[in-house]
Amino acid sequence: MLNHQKQINRYSTRDYVYETIRKKIIMLELSPGRSISEKEISEMLEVSRTPVREGFMKLAQEELLEVYPQKGTFVSLIDLNHMEEARFIREHLEKAAVKVASQNFENHNLKELESNFILQKEAVKNKDYTKLYELDESFHKTIIMGAGKERIWAIIQQMNAHLNRIRMLSLTMNHDWDLILSHHEKIIDAIRKQEAEIAHQVMENHLRKLTFEQGKLKQEFPDYFN
């Protein structure tokens, strides 16, 4: 029983380390190209090196960390090809999901979207891009969950890390916050009126926005991209 509890604690710690580092990478707190070490993370999170090493291995498998023998471990640079693949998959999954949502969305899900949108406007007013990112994630999740497609959200999260880093970078540069709000407002309106084709088209435009921002972001942050 004691050994079993140690095993649970060990894997809980590993997951905590993994999720914490992953979030810091996505939120750009650990910037692309930055060197990190097991010792640094171990001390920062107050855990032993074993779960840190295991977390590093998992993040390397997701291509968020690059491990070079005799040289060190580095946060991966943003790969635009990887990002575009993730965006393409997300676009097609979410376009399908929002059409379903437009046909059978429950009233409580609609209320949740509307409440979320009010908070988004407040975040834009306060120029709080971190909060806006979190609300944006919740907004899209609510649509997918309301469409009854929970596994789609899980799939998106598995391959979304590189895309989310460039989303955060875009938000930090204050690129088209009002356009994001406009898209979200139109999506809510289309779902409310059960206009599936309009919801589908707006979602497409919304998720293609980053395609047009890549060049400018790469020009402004050349060290962040490979």
UniProtKB/TrEMBL annotation:
InterPro entries associated with the record: GntR_C (IPR011711), TF_FadR/GntR_C (IPR008920), Tscrpt_reg_HTH_GntR (IPR000524), WH-like_DNA-bd_sf (IPR036388), WH_DNA-bd_sf (IPR036390)
Keywords, comma-separated and alphabetical: DNA-binding, Transcription, Transcription regulation
Listed Pfam families: FCD, GntR
SMART domains: FCD, HTH_GNTR
GO molecular function list: DNA binding; DNA-binding transcription factor activity
Gene3D superfamilies: GntR ligand-binding domain-like, Winged helix-like DNA-binding domain superfamily/Winged helix DNA-binding domain
Domain annotation HTH gntR-type: ranges: 11-78
Name by which UniProt lists this protein: Transcriptional regulator, GntR family
Organism annotation: Virgibacillus salinus
